[in-house]
Amino acid sequence: MFAAMIIPLAGADKSPEATPEAIRKTAQACADALQKGDYEAFVEYTHPKIIAMVGGKKKMMDMIKSGMDELNKAGMTIISYKIEAPAEAISVGDDLAAIVPTSLEMKSKTDKITQRSYLLAVSSDNGKHWTFVDGAGLDDEKVKVIIPNPPKELKLPAKAEPVIEKN
Q1: Range of 154's domain?
Q2: pLDDT over 50 (residue 63)
């Protein structure tokens, strides 16, 4: 009985921005910034610990631009970067976190490549502002750089192999 009274209250103090759809929309804005080449906006959505590890916002923007230039030189273009709504955000100490499923489609002259992955969404202000970490390079050890004591409920999805189709 006591637990039943606490459970509805546990989520009552989360902001409206902590809903799965609000997280999805914010993550989609992040993905759209990357696709449009707005690296400054993209970096604003990047988790601050990742920015610090790279050496600051300017270095992060330069690194992303360089990576995108390399893709273009190799004849690869992004067709779409779709973001799905996560399950509910979970409390992680003073933060909220969610696993946000993604699907990136790219094409070359000969192939279409679809890569399913995820973003780790983290909010330090009860869901008012979300930052993201690309799940492609994350594992249980690396996630501890972002979330020092990740709860058991924060399960990282298995890595998916890209699907390659001939054009």
Answers
A1: 15-166
A2: yes
